[in-house]
Design goal:
The complex is a heterodimer. Helix content of chain A is 29%, strand content 26%. By secondary structure, chain A is an alpha/beta fold. In chain A, strands 1, 2, 8, 9, 10, 11, 17 and 18 form an eight-stranded mixed β-sheet that branches. Chain A is globular. The model of chain B has no long low-confidence stretch (mean pLDDT 96). Classes of the chains: A alpha/beta, B mainly beta. The interface between A and B is medium-sized, with 23 and 27 residues.
């Protein structure tokens, strides 16, 4: 791998940037690998990267039915945070935050991690109590959390409507100062380049059509590019997790729903933090290109369509314009949707399965992007050691049977929680 | 998406609330089922990629619940019927 640096940039400038080498190869699959990772999104690529880097396993293929990073990795709103209250979630997401902080240097690829802070707005007394309680839990778990008064929020986001007669009056907010955003495409590309340079084969445009299970053990996968043998198989495919595990004969506590996001036309810097309003169902940040990025809730019905319906777009935009009246002047440029693997307790599932050598990484609900480095890190450990890391023991698939669910929202069995 | 309420006819999506998978049946006698069966009822879902039988609530209209068979890839509806009636259509 050619290292990216100011010197390589200068050197390549001499020949008009026409001789940069490809960031990763496009090999044909071999007949067998030690590990096959299904899903070439951020999670799958990060898993391959950490398997090679941390565990010395390099005979790996990452199989992707489309192009890498073309699923939810390229469809999220790029927010990175760890503002969770529940023990298992808090430690896991904070591990991911630790990895985010050093990711650009580690990958030698600029992922534009920008710790600009994430502020959750409270719009009533009940939310003030709940958010302060969550902030206290976070601080007890060593995660940065600060309560902000309305005056402090108004100073940080001057365009926000903080007046008392606002449609959504703001009572204060919980801020995680070290949270922020990262450039989602770069995360996939950086991990792909890092994994490829360590010998991982990234195979795009290759769909898995079957799982080969013999006597309770995985031995390979059937694909549109032929049969590929594998000693171990890790699945990180988000919305299509059910279809992959149907092939292995396992039924999962997952429903597939779609989540929309949208951006406005780009404007000059106007918002240098992330503002979220759970009550109004809207979260807002400004991309480095200048677009205002809006996200909201699910459309709330099962769907595999990577596109949404208008009522939700209207709902999100209405909320955004109530919070930031000035944004009503902006034109919406694009809307899209990603399909979410919604678990029945709102927390991810990372671990072993009843099939030997088959591992699951799923149930990311709304929040898979921020977990990308941590998810790959613990999943690589789980696959390499055939045993979960202490950080993902709590995310085992049998927690639904044993009753140890991680119900951050406190709503009971429900495939539509955060 | 427009939905054909069995009582009110075709209406805009925003009038409806989704109530989930219609194939999930609560065990008649919870005391006599095994833990595995109860776990399957509470947590496991078929989550098919194709035709899906589901329950909707015309919450901003007649407020009645009804069943629908919808393709979750194309968002096309095959049929909507009152609770208790059989869904038809699709290739299910």
């Amino acid at each position: 791998m050619k290292k990216y640096s100011i010197f390589s940039l200068a050197r390549n400038a001499l020949d008009y940037h026409e001789n940069w080498t490809e960031a990763w190869r496009s090999p044909e699959p071999k007949s067998e690998y030690d590990v096959v990772i299904i899903g070439g999104g951020g999670h799958g690529l990060a898993t391959a990267y950490y398997l090679a880097k941390e565990h010395g396993i390099t005979n790996i293929a990452v199989i992707e039915k489309g192009w890498i990073g073309g699923g939810n990795t390229g469809r999220n709103t790029t927010i990175v945070r760890s503002n969770y209250a529940i023990e298992g979630n808090a430690h896991f997401y904070e591990k991911a935050m630790d990895l985010w902080r050093g990711l650009t240097e580690d990958l030698n690829y600029h992922v534009m991690f920008s710790p600009r802070g994430v502020i959750n707005l409270a719009h009533n007394d009940g939310q003030v109590d709940a958010f302060q309680r969550r902030g206290n839990s976070m601080r007890l778990n060593g995660i940065d959390a600060e309560w902000m008064t309305v005056e402090e929020i108004a100073k940080r986001a001057p365009l926000l409507n903080t007046s008392k007669d606002a449609r959504y009056p703001i009572y204060g907010g919980l801020c995680q100062p070290k949270a922020g955003t990262a450039r989602h495409d770069a995360v996939a590309w950086g991990y792909a380049r890092g994994a490829d340079s360590r010998g991982v084969d990234i195979i795009q445009n290759c769909e898995v059509t079957g799982m080969k299970v013999e006597q309770g053990r995985i031995v390979g996968v059937e694909t549109t590019k032929g049969t590929i043998g594998a000693k171990k198989v890790g699945v990180a495919v988000a919305g299509h997790t059910t279809q992959l595990f149907d092939m292995a004969g396992l039924r999962l506590p997952i429903e597939t729903h779609k989540l929309q996001a949208m951006v406005t036309e780009p404007v000059k810097p106007a918002l240098d933090t992330v503002i979220t309003s759970g009550a109004a169902h809207c979260y807002i940040s400004q991309s480095d290109k200048g677009e205002m990025v809006f996200g909201g809730d699910l459309d709330f019905y099962n769907s595999y369509a990577q596109r949404g319906n208008y009522p939700n777009i209207e709902h999100v935009v209405t909320a955004a314009c109530e919070l930031f009246p000035a944004f009503s002047r902006l034109r919406l440029m694009r809307t899209w949707a990603g399909i979410m693997d919604m678990s029945m307790d709102g927390s991810p599932i990372i671990g072993k399965t009843p099939v030997d050598g088959l591992y699951i990484n799923a149930g990311w609900c709304y929040g898979g992007f921020k977990a990308t480095p941590g998810s790959g890190w613990v999943f690589a450990h789980t696959i390499a050691q055939d045993n979960p890391h202490p950080l993902n023991e709590c995310f085992s698939i049998d927690r639904f049977e044993t009753g140890y669910v991680l119900d951050e929202k406190g709503v009971g069995p429900e495939p539509k929680a955060h | 998406m427009r939905i054909n309420c069995p009582w009110c006819g075709e209406r805009y999506l925003a009038e409806f609330s989704y109530q989930g998978d219609a194939t999930v049946e609560r065990p008649v006698d919870p005391d006599s089922v095994s833990d595995a069966e109860w776990h399957a009822y509470v947590y496991l879902r078929d989550n098919p990629k194709g035709w899906h039988d589901e329950i909707w609530h015309h919450i901003q209209g007649c407020r009645k619940h009804f069943k629908a068979r919808r393709n979750v890839v194309t968002h096309e509806f095959a049929s909507t019927v009152p609770m208790g009636d059989e869904l038809t259509g699709g290739d299910k």
